[in-house]
Amino acid sequence: xxxxxxxxxxxxxxxxxxxxxxxxxxxxxxxxxxxxxxxxxxxxxxxxxxxxxxxxxxxxxxxxxxxxxxxxxxxxxxxxxxxxxxxxxxxxxxxxxxxxxxxxxxxxxxxxxxxxxxxxxxxxxxxxxxxxxxxxxxxxxxxxxxxxxxxxxxxxxxxxxxxxxxxxxxxxxxxxxxxxxxxxxxxxxxxxxxxxxxxxxxxxxxxxxxxxxxxxxxxxxxxxxxxxxxxxxxxxxxxxxxxxxxxxxxxxxxxxxxxxxxxxxxxxxxxxxx
Length: 274
Prior knowledge:
single chain; 274 residues; 72% helix; globular
């Protein structure tokens, strides 16, 4: 039996994984704009923010618990001993920390400062009552326990890896939109930086998904590879004093890498995934 045939409720998964976070995060956005940022308002933002992040994972869990074959497949894929190698870890670190450092080096050729390599330890956004670092590390875990536990396979059941990545890229950009209305949050800061930064965020999301899905499939549908890549990307892009324009260079580096990937691994991207 092809286990992907069991991932047959994409509409249910993606509908509720969009609707629930959107409602919660628009509530979070409302609270973030209140003139009086009382303790209650800030705690409310935390609760709504975390609930929104966790909800797609809970939707996926609901679907897994309804089917024994899916549940067993999930447990197998969550095994740390399966397809988890030093090569995978090294590749993830190279693609994330390596790409942002390469982008910073290239940016100095255009007059940007070497001070970008300074490890500031200060993320570019704030989060009510909890450390921004908590958000940066917690989000990849709970997101990928949804997207790469159920979501990606539900798309791969019908589409090629490339098509599935493009579909999810659109979905993921829209999924993040409510966060752009949360005052002081990363996504609202991106919008405030201007149209170029916003377009770059969207473009980089598509490339990010292509690379992450390639890693996921290349290493045997390993969810932890996706978690690690998402986590490393989040921290790499916030740990340095990186200029916003430098992230455009990083996107171009990702684009070149994806072009090479597709040329070298064309069958994986465009053939029916098994």
